[in-house]
Automatic annotation (TrEMBL):
Pfam families: MFS_1 (PF07690). GO terms for cellular component: plasma membrane. Residues 3-199 form the Major facilitator superfamily (MFS) profile domain. It is a multi-pass membrane protein. It is found in: Cell inner membrane. InterPro entries: MFS (IPR011701), MFS_dom (IPR020846), MFS_trans_sf (IPR036259). The chain crosses the membrane at residues 7-24, 44-64, 76-94, 133-156, 162-185. Its main location: membrane. This is Multidrug transporter.
Length: 199
């Protein structure tokens, strides 16, 4: 199915780009960012992780159901990638706490929207008899992306190529964004059952 192939490509782009970002963000910030006159350390990172968790809960419980009522799957996926691109770019140039927080909020919202949205989209386009196989295959491919992206990110940052690192993440996210634009318009409901299956 062409739509199914597009969805798989979109998912791979998302999780590869997010894996590049999330796996190396602590290294990037500790090398380049100053928090209260000191290099970005574990305490500051814990605040970011806590904020990411709070945003994830808020999006899953409140925002996702509301957004899915008004957005087609294509528009929602485009929104996810637009937030990712904005967040990655902002994180790469952030020199102040407010700018960094804005980047984290954009990326956290995008990632929280992503998994339930992708699962719901797969469920819409795949017959019930094939959903297990298709979703299992998609998760296996995502696991491969989750493995490769930190390795590549670590290799790039090992040479202190910060611009290349964030550039790769943004480029892959842009590929996902462009690919998502060819998805058909279709509304779906990312209901509680779908959220429970992905969480």
């Amino acid at each position: 199915m062409p739509v199914l192939r597009v969805l798989i490509i979109v998912m791979l782009c998302h999780f590869f780009a997010y894996g590049m970002y999330s796996s190396q963000l602590p290294v990037f910030l500790s090398d380049t960012f100053i928090w209260n006159g000191l290099p970005f350390g574990p305490k500051a990172l814990s605040y970011l992780l806590m904020a990411d968790g709070v945003i994830n809960i808020f999006v899953q419980l409140f925002l996702l159901g509301w957004v899915s009522q008004y957005f087609s799957e294509r528009k929602l996926i485009i929104l996810i990638f637009a937030l990712l691109c904005t967040g990655f770019l902002t994180a790469g140039i952030a020199t102040t706490i407010p700018v960094l927080v804005f980047a984290i909020v954009c990326i956290s919202i995008a990632d929280a929207l992503a998994k339930p949205t992708y699962l719901a989209a797969l469920s819409v386009h795949v017959s019930p008899a094939r959903q297990g196989i298709v979703i299992g295959t998609a998760q296996a491919l995502i696991a491969i992306a989750d493995f490769i992206s930190p390795v590549l990110g670590g290799l790039v940052l090992g040479y202190a190529l910060y611009g290349v690192w964030i550039g790769i993440a943004i480029s892959v996210a842009i590929i996902g964004l462009v690919t998502a634009m060819i998805l058909p318009f279709k509304k779906f409901s990312a209901n509680s059952e779908t959220r429970n299956r992905i969480m």
